[in-house]
Amino acid sequence: QVQLVESGGGLVQPGGSLRLSCVASGSIFSINVMGWYRQAPGKQREWVASISGGTNTKYADAVKGRFTISRDNSKSAVYLQMNSLKPEDTAVYYCHYVGSWGQGTQVTVSS
């Protein structure tokens, strides 16, 4: 089973940006989907974005136009560039790949 490690979370003011990274312990295959999910306090985990191949991306309506998912298969990594952050984006963000989850990274958007 692939081990996933997220990084890049933190505290940012509304309107700010963060870039999350997720690195897999083993090789990843471009055909397989990699995704980002998030879970806010008291809420269920929700899907944020996913990418298959190199360019086939999908986004939840709540983040469309603000977040960008990308991947680097040579580094077994997936990224989430988050711009124009809002307080409602506050959550723990998780990386997902073929049934494996990372430990999560906290993103807090607050003034």
Topology (SSEs and partners):
Elements: E1 4-7, E2 10-12, E3 18-24, E4 34-39, E5 46-52, E6 56-59, E7 67-72, E8 77-82, E9 91-97, E10 100-101, E11 105-109
Parallel strand pairs: 2-11
Antiparallel strand pairs: 1-3, 3-8, 4-5, 4-9, 5-6, 7-8, 9-10, 9-11
Report what the structure shows:
- The chain has 111 residues and is mostly beta strands.
- It contains no helices and 11 strands.
- It is globular and about 40 Å long.
Can you give keywords for this protein?
single chain; 51% strand; globular; 111 residues
Strand content: over 45%
Question: pLDDT under 50 segments (min length 5)?
Answer: none
C-alpha end-to-end distance: 39 Å
- From N to C, what is the helix and strand string? EEEEEEEEEEE
Helical content (DSSP H or I, runs of 4+): under 10%
Give the overall form: globular
Largest sheet, strands/sense/barrel? 7 strands, mixed
Which assembly state applies to the chains in this document? Answer: single chain
Average pLDDT metric: 94
Structural class: mainly beta
How many helices? The count is: 0
**Number of DSSP-assigned strands:** 11
Q: Output the radius of gyration.
A: 13 Å
